[in-house]
Amino acid sequence: MHVQIIGAAGMIGRKLVGAISRTGKLGERAVTALTLADAIKPDAPAGFSGDVSIKAVDIADPATAGQLLAGRPDVIVHLAAIVSGEAEQDFDKGYRINLDGTRYLFDAVRELSQADGYCPRLVFASSIAVFGAPFPDKIDDTFLPAPLTSYGTQKAIGELLLQDYSRRGFFDGLAIRLPTICIRPGLPNKAASGFFSGILREPLAGKQAVLPVPDTVRHWHASPRAAVGFLTHAATMDLGPVGHRRVLNMPGVSATVAEQIEALRNIAGDKAVALIRREPDPDIMRIVAGWPQDFAPERAIELGFRAETSFEEIIRIHIEDEMGGRL
Amino acid sequence: MHVQIIGAAGMIGRKLVGAISRTGKLGERAVTALTLADAIKPDAPAGFSGDVSIKAVDIADPATAGQLLAGRPDVIVHLAAIVSGEAEQDFDKGYRINLDGTRYLFDAVRELSQADGYCPRLVFASSIAVFGAPFPDKIDDTFLPAPLTSYGTQKAIGELLLQDYSRRGFFDGLAIRLPTICIRPGLPNKAASGFFSGILREPLAGKQAVLPVPDTVRHWHASPRAAVGFLTHAATMDLGPVGHRRVLNMPGVSATVAEQIEALRNIAGDKAVALIRREPDPDIMRIVAGWPQDFAPERAIELGFRAETSFEEIIRIHIEDEMGGRL
After folding, report:
1. Under an 8 A CB cutoff, do A146 and B164 touch?
2. What are the CB-based long-range contacts (under 8 Å, 24+) for B49-56?
3. Could you name the CATH architecture of B2-178+224-249?
4. What amino acid positions of B are annotated as catalytic residues?
5. CATH number of the domain at A2-178+223-249, please?
6. What residues of B are in the A interface, CB distance below 8 Å?
7. What is the pLDDT of residues A217-232, one digit of tens each?
8. How far, in Å, CA of A300 to CA of B276, rounded?
9. What is the ipTM score, two decimals?
10. Does the reported pTM lie above 0.80?
11. B197-242 pLDDT, tens per residue?
12. Nearest CB to B164: which of A150, A163, A168?
């Protein structure tokens, strides 16, 4: 099976490539070829023994998608996006990459489909950013997308296109709405959501972290490992039972910041918790107030998607996957 | 006030122009200039005493929208679309007109907005075609759009763009999801929904009509007069209370075909009902099975939108507006 990952240089992309390289498989299926593309050249997949093609591309260039598809990948995982903050700051760039880039990709698949019946699996990484307040206590599978950011708008449009193109038979698509990924490895970043990871990752490494919101704030999380699992399942599962609604809210852990901190205390002790400094930030508080808090992702669970079931599990996965298993 | 109507040659467009021409007003506001555009040249607005500009345009041409906006209309009513059946048959044309054309319009407004703060009211005629089965008994204001046609997909994308552009302050937008318009005047057409009007309009005129579905089929209707009222209210109301969710399900009458027929009997007698010939059509039955049946359009009603409250009222309006008040 030939797998193409667009957005392979991002955090989730690198983890997905790592999982394929380690096992030679995507789920249960052997991977014989990998095409990795991103705006910056992705790293070579260490240890992968199949054919490899690595490309630095601009997906907002209408010619890119056709070139990417020359090898007729069996599975396309579309992770490429300008993130929320940048799409909000740079309106044109967000629409160019997140909407036009996605549509060029879908249309390039469509052209091949109409020419000779090519019909790959296409997995689109969407986001809970398609939702905007006000919310019910738990967002169910029939709640409307009403994004409050341009990024969320662009993802919601990508979902609609994916469903129409799938219904038409141009590809076999599935869009998965990822929870906020926690604990994100790496350095602190300036994303408004960064503190959800920072207040755990930094204390686990013996460093101070800033908490800009009250600890009553509730949000929806899954680990990077769970995200790789979601993408793998979406890429390989039988889509027959999914029907025409090809967009799924992914499972996750709903937790308040206080619950996150208690999980940290249970695993790393009071010493780690003492490294969290409370510095309320009205801007971040305002942004976070518009974010989803909890979901009832029944369809995804019925279809076999699995996330963590507690924040302690999320923290343990970080320790295993990012810290060599040791505090 | 300068009002621009794009799609002015269609049935609803002509009725809206007629209402403005008769009164010199849109709602309570005096109209001093009208710009009418469509793919075919709209008729001159008989009796309108203000400035008039009439244009045949191709909205899928990226240059069109900028030219249309040269006169800086205060209100833009965007009705132009390839209808459902044609958008399903001609994929490219549907996306070109219904998606690209809408985006070109929105972006042309945005350019002027960013240049000098231009911020017109923009009313977008969306449709209950954004919804796809399965449904709850009544579709409420938070039910997800899950279109089962390319037309519905294109309308749902237009709604998302309108909300993002409105949130950004590029224009002051409102999208209204029109019920199936009944009784459509004119000749029978081949739209799958055509029979809903046909089984009333034709017998009222002493002609036979074909009913291709069982009389248990339930659907959501409003008159052409109600549609003009929706557009007028959307174009002139205070949008302050609407917030960021700038898409509203319009009110209407939920009725079974049997209830439609009883209303016809009450107004025009058994003789009229006898002109309906039952000829089940499996294709039409299958299409109609995916359509919404009933709504709870609470937000729209709170915001002052009004439709008919019975099918008899819908029939009487047809007799008044299309038959000179006489059977």
Report:
1. no
2. B49/B24, B50/B24, B51/B2
3. 3-Layer(aba) Sandwich (3.40)
4. 151
5. 3.40.50.720
6. 91, 132, 136, 142-148, 150, 153, 156-157, 160-161, 163-164, 167-168, 244-245
7. 999 999 999 999 999 9
8. 47
9. 0.97
10. yes
11. 999 999 999 999 999 999 999 999 999 999 999 999 999 999 999 9
12. A150
